Amino acid sequence: MSRGKYYHPEIERMSRKAIRDLQNRRLRWQVQRCTAKSEFYQEKFRKAGIKASQIKTVDDLVHVPVVTKQELRDEQMKHPPFGRYTVAPSKDWRELHPSTGTTGAPVNTIWSEKDVENITEITARTMWSFGVRPGDIIQNGFSYGLWVAGMSTHYAGERIGCFVIPIGASMTGRQVEYMLNPGSTVLLCTPSFALHIAENLRERGVSPEQLSLRLGSFGGEGGTETQATRRKIEEGLAIDAYDYYGLAEIGPTFASECTAKAGLHFAEDQYLIEILNPDTKERCAEGEMGVLVITHLSREATPMLRYWTNDYARFDSSRCPCGRTHGRAVGGILGRADDMVIYRGAKFYPVQVEKVVRSYREVGDEFLIELTRDENSYAEVCTVVCECLSADTDRTSLEQRLRKDLREELQVTPEIRIEPFGTLERTTFKAKRIYDKRPK
Description:
Elements: H1 9-12, H2 16-37, H3 39-48, H4 69-78, E1 93-96, E2 110-112, H5 113-129, E3 137-140, H6 148-160, E4 163-165, H7 172-180, E5 186-189, H8 191-204, E6 215-218, H9 227-237, E7 240-247, E8 251-256, E9 264-266, E10 271-276, E11 290-296, E12 307-313, E13 315-316, E14 328-329, E15 335-336, E16 341-343, E17 346-348, H10 350-357, E18 363-373, E19 380-388, H11 395-410, E20 415-420, E21 434-436
Parallel strand pairs: 3-4, 3-5, 5-6, 6-7, 18-21, 19-20
Antiparallel strand pairs: 1-2, 7-8, 8-9, 9-14, 10-11, 11-12, 12-15, 13-14, 16-17, 18-19
Helix pairs in contact: 2-3, 5-6, 7-8, 8-9, 10-11
């Protein structure tokens, strides 16, 4: 394969006008087929009092109601097993990929043969953008099976011309062994698992400089674009670390950082991106934080029209320093509505706690947020729990400094509990950061 800086330069460097013209054409096609073949969308359009013929451009899409994950769950329960939002005929179905179910019942997503091809190409584009090249040895630490990221990156690695090790999200010791022999050059997994692998390296006395690893991309949870977390991953594995983003309902690996590390690039030829005000549902001004809403422009089997991701982001349509013209979520995913903590009138997200905790070199990589109630006063108590790397550390001083920095970041002062190193659970999958122990 002979390619330069861009996997598909004619697509990745399109003018903004050309991108919008393509989006308008593909949007009309998608709306027409959804309303013609899906009772789910027919019902939504009828209740909203709109017709498919009224949706001619991206600007007209504001009249279409959003689709939420709970709606899809309810639809599946009423019309099992796949609901009425499946548009392609069953003869075209090729793969089933439900969501992880970490926030409720899994939502089934179906890929057609063309969907598999498009997902593979889009994922190959993302991997090329952060530096994967033919001949790389990819250690694929994303989960395989029903979870989508392992499959999409496997397909894309083969498409690029890489040697893929399908180890999945397991066997931390074996992960290290493969890094040493045959000498993986690319690591794909969650940020939490990357930090766990780096911790295992230290425990074994293996210097990251002994490895052939040169880069990694990490998704499935927030964290990589938090500078403290990125620094820990990069130093712990001696690599360049890049952010990755995807959703089972939309696409497993459809947005990533490029080598400029200037935000998550969206494949705007395939996905229409909106940022909406969480309260009014109106579109935010460019650069304003809101909820990320995504529309499929080419998905055949289970297309989503205005899917409400519940993830907070900012959108920037300016040309990236890398030369790509497709829009970016600068700063990555800034938080998730499901994970918001409300404590003493303040609102914050685990990623803000992560930013502070992982900036301390004397503190371990793991942390959690406990929500409890005082038995006497019944007042809510929020406690940040983390680990101290050395028994010789002055814990009183460390607690005071953590409390001060967390107060500045969160605008509220949580309690601090410092545990011995190794106390908190390590994970190879999505880390659970919030433990709500309040009586119901």
